[in-house]
Amino acid sequence: MRTILPLLLLPLLACGTKGDDPFGQGGGDNNMGVPTGDGGATGDGGSTTDDTGTGSDGGTTDGGTTDGGTTDDTGTGPVIKGTGYDAGDTAYDLVATDQAGSPFRLHSLYGRNVVLVVGHMDDPAFTNMTTWLGAVEDATVVALVGRDEDGVTADTADALGWASAWGVSTVLVDPTGELVNTWAERAPPKTYVIGASMDIAWTWFGTASQVQVQDKIDDL
């Protein structure tokens, strides 16, 4: 019996030792998740979420290519928005045909001072200015005419003869009469002094003098 009793106790001692494993160091480490469950590289999302920010934080969509920079770089010049026909306004774009039959746009003269006279060749108040228009300095002179010397609608031949006779670089014709009515506000003649940015610096109804016009140009 003394030999058999110790042999019976050995399996009981072995079972008791195995049953302590869940409360030991190894089991505790697995339940706390220190080596395998911290999620530092794959579970916190820090590195993968932050890395997507370069495509959505505005770095490439902050207007760098849509703020007008590419439009300004095309070389077509600035876009000019006309506001009126009086001093202090930005001149509208006068679109007409010149003495050579070529298209003309006032805004194409951006960067130059412009003297624009509007009227009829058979109007003494208008023709009184023809003697000095060709002598204006530091400005491009443009004449918009409605009727010729005979009181009928002026054509390009009339405009060419008038430009040659008086040394005016550009004479525009108005087959419908609408341009003269609009730009002279139905009270021709009207004179404009327009700055290089297409801002109207001065206007005058009736006969303007060379001194008046030149002084306004010098003030630009």
Explain the overall architecture.
This protein is of the alpha/beta class and 220 residues long. Helices cover 30% and strands 15% of the residues. The chain is built from nine helices and seven strands. The protein has a seven-stranded mixed sheet with strand order 2-1-5-4-3-6-7.
Spatially, the strands of the biggest sheet line up as 2-1-5-4-3-6-7
Fraction in beta strands = 15-25%
Extract low-pLDDT stretches: 1-75
Oligomer: single chain
The whole-angstrom Rg is 44 Å
Distance between the termini: 130 Å
* Total strands: 7
* Major sheet characteristics: 7 strands, mixed
Number of helices: 9
The 3D shape can be described as globular
Helix content: 25-40%
Summarize the helix and strand pattern as letters: HHHHEEEHHEHEHEEH
Structural class: alpha/beta
Entry keywords:
220 residues; globular; alpha/beta; 7 strands; seven-stranded mixed sheet; single chain
Topology summary:
Layout: H1 4-18, H2 25-32, H3 46-51, H4 69-72, E1 95-98, E2 103-105, E3 114-119, H5 124-127, H6 130-133, E4 140-145, H7 156-166, E5 170-173, H8 178-183, E6 190-194, E7 200-205, H9 210-218
Parallel strand pairs: 3-4, 4-5
Antiparallel strand pairs: 1-2, 1-5, 3-6, 6-7
Short précis:
The chain has 220 residues and is α/β, with parallel strands linked by helices. It contains 9 helices and 7 strands. The longest helix is centred in the N-terminal third of the chain and has 15 residues.
